[in-house]
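tokens incoming
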């Protein structure tokens, strides 16, 4: 066959693959005005010049195994969803969790006691000096977190859950209060926390009382939490000892040093959780300081208990180094940066940057933050944040946000057990995965406002597609 005939045959084959996106390729596109559209034949719309993306699935290009995607069960999420009628609420939970329907979330986070998106402060035992945890109770959660999680498990019975506290019982802290930062008169009275100005906490200190009776009681607190949720038919596979252990906040928070957490994990929490078959993971790490992680992982007592390390916010600056130093360690993105309550396209693009960064640097689990919030996304302590679902309190109507569709673009197609594939070419805004069934998923984002022709080469076979200006695209081969 001469070269002219070869070029003609290649042209015919390429056109055939473009037509109707052929049965072997599914293309889903989201733009700001048209989310989640299935794309068919666009062969006549391709620009002249093309970008190239090479997906080589040979073993040397395979990276971490994906364990799953999800979000966090927060009290205010259930408050928002409870405004909906039963049919709408059921439809939302089915869309988020049901296999084969929407996002198909498989692994989620929950708080141990109150966090910044709780209705107000509470812990499971506010009886000072109750080291035996005789007054431990999850009664508060029967109104919010338990029905929220059950509604998800109705559609995803195998949903995996991990948990972390934002704050221990207040009597276990040196300042005797849930907060760590004073809220002065510059704060709206409804957002003030009542912390005395002389009781603030500081990064680099242990606000928890590091005495044996308190440490032992806190490990028991975790055990009681695991048992109480198990009794409700809600298994929890793992815990982290403290959310953002470097960050004093106006809401529930507690600073620890890495050394303090090492003592707690190595001598108390680790043995208690091991006895229950519960994984202990370190985090959440919100500083770009891998030395904080090294302190725990390299400790002869604490290190062997650690089954994973979780990162969020500025912790994204440390995950790459930790992945290089501990390549077999499970890594989690524990809380996606939360936006400003506007749920706009710019926020979605930032979410894409985060998603790509964490997955490129070894994360196997990626959890979004708020599942649902009222319009505006205001927390109990006055912070506006984004969510996957927005509910209008005035009309009891809901909508899915652009960040939801971004999560769906990956979680709907990339299944647990998939492997990330390292890419080459000149298309930087892309991720690729090989599912356990052999299907290949490519996620591409166009954020420069220009239609682009993209040649996707998978193990030597090339398909050309259109990346529309300002779009999120999933291609499933």
């Amino acid at each position: 066959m001469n070269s002219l005939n070869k070029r003609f045959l290649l042209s015919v084959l390429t056109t055939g693959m473009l037509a109707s996106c052929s049965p072997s390729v599914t293309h889903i596109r989201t733009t700001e005005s048209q989310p989640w559209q299935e794309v068919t034949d666009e062969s006549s719309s391709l620009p002249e010049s093309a970008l190239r993306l090479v997906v080589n699935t040979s073993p040397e290009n395979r990276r971490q195994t994906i364990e799953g995607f999800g979000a966090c069960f927060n009290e205010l999420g259930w408050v928002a969803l409870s405004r909906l009628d039963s049919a709408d609420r059921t439809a939302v939970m089915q869309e988020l969790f049901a296999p084969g329907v929407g996002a198909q979330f498989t692994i989620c986070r929950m708080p141990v006691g109150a966090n910044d998106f709780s209705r107000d402060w509470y812990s499971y035992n506010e009886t000072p000096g109750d080291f035996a945890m005789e007054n431990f109770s999850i009664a508060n959660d029967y109104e919010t977190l338990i029905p929220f999680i059950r509604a998800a498990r109705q559609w995803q019975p195998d949903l995996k859950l991990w948990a972390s506290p934002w704050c221990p019982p207040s009597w276990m802290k040196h300042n005797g209060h849930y907060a760590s930062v004073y809220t002065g008169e510059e704060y709206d009275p409804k957002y003030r926390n009542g912390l005395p100005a002389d009781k603030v906490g500081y990064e680099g200190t242990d606000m928890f009382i590091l005495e044996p009776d308190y440490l032992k009681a806190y490990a028991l607190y975790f055990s009681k939490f695991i048992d109480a949720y198990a009794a409700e038919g809600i298994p929890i596979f793992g815990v982290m000892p403290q959310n953002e252990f470097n960050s004093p906040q106006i809401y529930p928070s507690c600073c620890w040093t890495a050394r303090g957490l090492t003592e707690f994990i190595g001598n108390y929490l680790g043995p208690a959780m091991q006895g229950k078959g519960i994984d202990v993971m370190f985090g959440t790490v919100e500083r770009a300081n891998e030395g904080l992680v090294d302190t725990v992982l390299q400790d002869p007592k604490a290190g062997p208990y650690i089954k994973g390390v979780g990162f969020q916010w500025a912790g994204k600056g440390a995950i790459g180094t930790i992945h290089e130093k501990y390549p077999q360690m499970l890594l989690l993105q524990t809380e996606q940066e939360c936006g400003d309550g506007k749920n706009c396209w710019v926020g979605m693009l930032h979410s894409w940057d985060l998603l790509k960064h964490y997955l490129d640097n070894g994360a196997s689990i990626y959890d979004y933050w708020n599942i649902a919030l009222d319009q505006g996304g205001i927390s109990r302590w006055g912070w506006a944040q984004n969510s996957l679902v927005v509910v209008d309190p005035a009309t009891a109507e809901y909508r899915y946000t652009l960040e939801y569709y971004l999560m769906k673009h990956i979680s709907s197609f990339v299944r647990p057990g998939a492997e990330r594939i390292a890419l080459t070419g000149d298309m930087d805004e892309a991720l690729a995965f090989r599912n356990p069934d052999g299907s290949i998923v490519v996620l591409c984002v166009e954020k420069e406002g220009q239609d682009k022709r993209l040649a996707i080469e998978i193990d030597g076979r090339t398909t050309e597609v259109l990346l529309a200006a300002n779009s999120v695209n999933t291609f499933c081969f």
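note: The first strand starts at residue 26 and ends at 30.
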